[in-house]
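Ticket #4471: complex job returned nothing on first submit. Input attached below:
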Amino acid sequence: MCNQVTSGPTSSFLKARDISLAGLLGALGLVLPMLFHLVGLGKVFLPMFIPILMAGLLISPWMAALLGIVVPLLSALFTGMPPLVPPTAILMAIELPVMAMVAHLLYRRWRLHIVIAVTAALVAGKLMTGIEIVTIAPLFGLQRAVIPYLVVTTVTSLPGIILNIVVVPLAVKAIERVTLVPPRGPSGPPTPPSNRENGTP
Amino acid sequence: MTTLLGWASWNAHTGDENLIHRLDARVKVLCALGLVAAVLVVPVVSGWAKHLVLAALVVAVLVVGRLPVTGLLRQLRWMAIFCLGLSVLLPFFRPHSSQDVLALPLAGLTGSRQAAELILSFTVKGTMVVSTVFILTATTGLRKLTVALSDLRVPHCLVELLSFIQRYVVVLGKEAQRMDRARRLRGGGRSLALRLKAGAGLAASLLIRTCLRAERVAAAMVTRGYTGRLPRITQAKMSVGAIVLVVSLWTALAALVMW
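Support reply: We reran it on our side without changes. The output follows.
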């Protein structure tokens, strides 16, 4: 699943960079929600979404999707947030990979503007949540609660959605400026940062 | 920040070494899997006696492992709130038939028997699963768990990702600690606005510095011959005693389920 890059010295570096950056963003996905929950703002600002969206924009789609599955479950196992029961962690483990994949597809493959990619990824994530709730709610006999639940969760997470749309593009652009993130598009070797800053390819 | 680092070592409850902590992590993972499977398979209402046995087992391990009850309660709080919320909504669940009507001991209200049983099942099974997971994580820690998963042939990229996450949590924490100390030494933190401004700058700087560090790590990995797979972390073979323990627990659980 993780071996989608072709062999060669450059691809070795890309693989190493992917796993290394994924580890960093995964750690951020565990630490950020803890910091937000300390001041009671976790549910409103969606802090776990930030590193996963960044992963979708910066690293390979499969690794980002794997990160989207692992981070909420790991956080649930070790910190109890998001909870395993009710299955919020499991719902997030389905929602976050979708977001990461959509962000990657729109930004890296289709070369859309980063803000559009992030917004569309967040919308895709919410749609995924909707599908999950529609599937799960009948098990509890709560068919009528689906629409109100979705409206309430979307409205309460609006500050988080706005925060994500503002912070993620800024952070990704800053990282792209200083690191060896490969240029957008299906392939291509990484460009050294000094050359990129000078405007030469 | 020190608390964060303490948590980041992922061994918050493993300081108190005892039998459960010392047990082979692979045994703990396999036993936890067996227990979770048994809990999920056994129905709560018709199999309440079996659930009592399973609960006794979980409590026994909690007591022997001398695990903090507060830690477990913290993990259970969201489930408690959710189940309490569902219970309050019980009068609004419409019964499917006359046999499904459940008389509630409150102002002559009625609810659905099926819904009540579902909530009860959810509460009991949820409590057991969360407790089992808590025991596993609190007595093992992420590092040992990663090695155990590697030995149990969990996909390689998942194990690699877990070990990197574990290392970076510590790196992030230490880097943040250094930057916070530097900020305080320079006299930052008088007013809230100043602190927020400094905090935002700190977070941005932390992100960039750790990304650069991640890239240096990647370069170092390639220099040391990384070709896309880290060498598999392996432990010594499982002892006969450990295998006997896992097999006997699984047999006992299977017997309990089928009884």
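Chain A touches chain B through 51 residues (CB under 8 Å). Closing as resolved unless it happens again.
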